[in-house]
Amino acid sequence: MKELTLDELPGAVGREFTGEEWLEVTQQQIDQFADATGDHQWIHVDQERAQDGPYGRTIAHGFLTLALMVPLSNQAVQVTGARMGVNYGLDRVRFITPVPVGSRLRAKVKFTELREVEGGYQLSRTVTIELEGAEKPACVAESLVRLYP
Fold first, then answer.
1. d(CA 42, CA 53)
2. Cα gap 53→46, rounded to integer Å
3. From the CA atom positions of the chain, what is the Rg in Å?
4. Backbone angles phi, psi at 30, to 5 degrees
5. Cα torsion 29, 34, 35, 37: sign
6. Distances 111 to 1, 13, 99, 101, 123 between C-alpha atoms, Å
7. Which domains does the chain have, with CATH numbers?
8. In DSSP terms, which residues pair with 109 in a beta bridge?
9. pLDDT > 90: what percent of the chain?
10. Is 40 helix (H, G, I), strand (E, B) or coil?
11. Residues 22-51: what's their mean pLDDT?
12. Coil, strand, or helix at residue 73?
């Protein structure tokens, strides 16, 4: 994991950082996400039925994959020296490849733009959630983070 200070951010625009650790997606995570969101579609939670489905096992919710962007991104790069950082939003999200239970994910984070906002900075990032062994990523999202010194 790479650590950058706020002062180093301008020089990091255009750079990409890759997480070193893979995170396994478990059925427990999928079930907990289903409970939290009320999305109990069989493709996510019915392991027996999913064996006969298109992926041969359950798959993670797309929004679970998106939620995992936070810990996965933090494994790739962290900005230190801010008193507070907040997710400001997403400009574009694509769920490209389904994530079967037991799969492993990691993030590539590319800093695409840094601009000053009232009281701090807005960092635009392209976050690619890689799916181990897959040709295409699980998810690609353009993420906005506000950082306040």
1. 9
2. 10
3. 17
4. -60, -45
5. positive
6. 15, 5, 25, 30, 7
7. 2-24+59-148 (3.10.129.10)
8. 17, 127
9. 99
10. coil
11. 98
12. helix
User: How is residue 40 written in tokens?
Assistant: 């109990």
Nearest-angstrom CA–CA distance, 9 and 109? 13
84-95 and 139-148 beta bridge pairing: antiparallel
Q: Are 90 and 144 in contact (CB under 8 A)?
A: yes
The number of C-alpha atoms within 13 Å of 96 and in the hemisphere containing its C-beta is 15
Residue written as token pair 């999913």: 50
User: Residue 90 corresponds to which amino acid?
Assistant: L
CB 126 within 8 A of CB 140: yes
Per-residue pLDDT tens for 93-105?
999 999 999 999 9
The pLDDT tens digits for 102-117 are: 999 999 999 999 999 9
Let me know how long the chain is.
Answer: 149
pTM of the model: 0.94
Tokens of 88: 């400001």
pLDDT at res. 1: 86
**Residue 107 and residue 130 in contact, taking contact as beta carbons nearer than 8 Å:** yes
By the 8 A CB rule, do 121 and 130 touch? no
